[in-house]
Protein 1
Amino acid sequence: MPQFKLVQQHTDLPQPGPTTRIIEGDTFDFKETYAPAKLEEMGKDIAMFANGLGGTIVVGSSPDADPLAYPGLPRAYAEERKTDFDLALRDFVDPKPLVVSVLFESPIRPGYWMLVVNVYPYPDQLVGSRVGSCWRFPMRTGAQCAYISPSMIALYSAAVRRIAILLEGISVGSSVELIFVNTQGVITGTGMRHYVAIDHRTNVLKVEERSAFTTRAEWHPLDQVKTAYLGSDSVWRVKLPS
């Protein structure tokens, strides 16, 4: 599953070359531009990423059918669209996720600028976007936008979703301490593992136990994870039933 990473300069962007739509996915949305004051659409795009794993809207990209490139926009126009995104977040998105917008010069067109809008995931609950007097709940699915139906709202508000999104931020290979507790909450054992991945499709946390002689894979159901937190020693700890 793709993982959102903050884009702050052109070297953080995907490499140019492939057709834009091919590289677009769960965490990137490439836009040639936005029309002025398209605040409802901007609000929808912010909420779409906030309801998933986070993502980056890249404004000033090549057209969808062309090879991916970053020609940029006139600086004044890019700055105006940045202001529009601020207004869209204020007036058309609720609750409000963390959004970090950055302007930097086009890597291929001096004097033209890229606008990137980094949207962090909002794991506590679904984020709505206002359309007229109504609220909708968009979510990124591949390179498209889908809308969450009322019957699915409870699923996306579950505590396990918050835990899964938190664990998505762990770097592959990092040390993770598993803490096993019984039904009374008493710790019955601990063990260090190496983080592999969160697999949303199979609903598992994947880790590995490594020694000098062997590597043993472990899969733990996400539904059984009681809590996950980053310790003061910068080690992630995950509580599981024993």
Protein 2
Amino acid sequence: MLTLFHCMSARSFRPLWTLEELGLPYELRMLPFPPRMHARDYLQTNPLGTVPALYDGEVAMTESAAMCQYLATRDGPTALAVAPGDPEYGGFLNWLHFGEATLTFPQTIVLRYGRFEPPERRLPQAAEDYRKWFLARLKGLIPVLSRRPYLCGEQLTVADISVGYALMLADYLGLAGQFPAAVQDYWARLQTGAGYQRALAAQLRAAQEQGVSTTPAPLVA
């Protein structure tokens, strides 16, 4: 059985969304955010104290984008992954990692030094600089999204899930209104997907059943 450790709307939403798109059975274990502070026993499961953590038998993973690729390929080819040899394969891998390394990373600086640190440790200038840095990097999506609905063609892949989570996080930070038009349309399209909607419902239901706050992690003060 696949087991995913998750905080509301944290990076672990990527593999949750992927699981729902694939229709795979899984166990969702909800944690308060941040778990390294509020669920100390979790350090025995993941010494990093971060989410996500994904367990599949003896397989243990802690990187959200890698989990998406793993889930989309573990049982053979699926529509959520582009196969080696396909002309889109290089772009698929590029966008899969772009979502985390280029788009999510700067937002973690905005969150930490704009919201999560105690007031005396906050760095407003750093938060503002990285907000602008993130928005500037969205320009890289425009040439692709101006000519097709998804990053690798006509169908959703885990590359879209990776980038889509970065847009979800930015939406929580109040940045969606500053997305370029093509990115705004793309984000709106992703949110209408059945798998995305099921993932939202699954985390809310699990949080309520397990007695965990339903406040999204990006909004925890």
Protein 3
Amino acid sequence: MLEAAALLAAAAWYGFELLSGAPVLTFWGAVFTLVLLLAFSTWLFAVGHFLFRGYRWTRAAALVAQLFVLTIGFPTMTGGLAFQGLAMILPALAAIIFLFQKDVISYASRTGGSGDVL
């Protein structure tokens, strides 16, 4: 949920910069990037919400999100932005480790509906 909130804040900052006339290569490309940031943030909020409710499918979705963050974080860190890269890599690695702990696996075992927990 914290990653989703941070991504939403980044989207808000990106949208503000876009509206304030910051130079962009193509306007519609920047709008598309803003839409992607908002969509990914919404997806992460949904994953976080349903993970707290204990649904099984959220572990896979959260893992995919963390792998996406790692694929952006490593080039960012090696490209000269070490602090920003580490700010992406460290929480992603921590989330991946937490996703595979026995407590999380046993908690996130619902399959949907209002049926019994497996």
Protein 4
Amino acid sequence: MLLPITEPILERLRAIRVTQLQHPYADEVLTQQEVIVLTLGLGPAIYLRFDGRVLIWHYMDDEPLRETDDVGDIAAGIVIGARNSGFDGLLSLLPQMPSNGTVCDTCCGTHWWSFPRQTNNKKPGEIVCPTCRGLGWTVESPR
């Protein structure tokens, strides 16, 4: 699946990459390919290539880097990457809701699922919505 990288988005991706390359622990995918890191930490690393392909690396499972067409992995990566980079324009790369889709009941289209924290911190915790995987919409499966 190729995401539609427009020239304005590409310009911003290049700026994000420059910042990411300054990190003292920039990984080999970032340093060797034209990508930005969408997410790296718990779970797989997800990267957006400047040509619109999304790469995923389950490094903790010792799996090789590969391109993914899994819309859930792509959506989660885009949503996390938009938040981490401060570039909400990445959200424009998410697939549009199809005619048979509905706004996700879990996240109400926000891409995030909020839950109360069990600490004195009054701010709720958030994770990418487990129902829509960050798309903001769902399609009911045929029975």
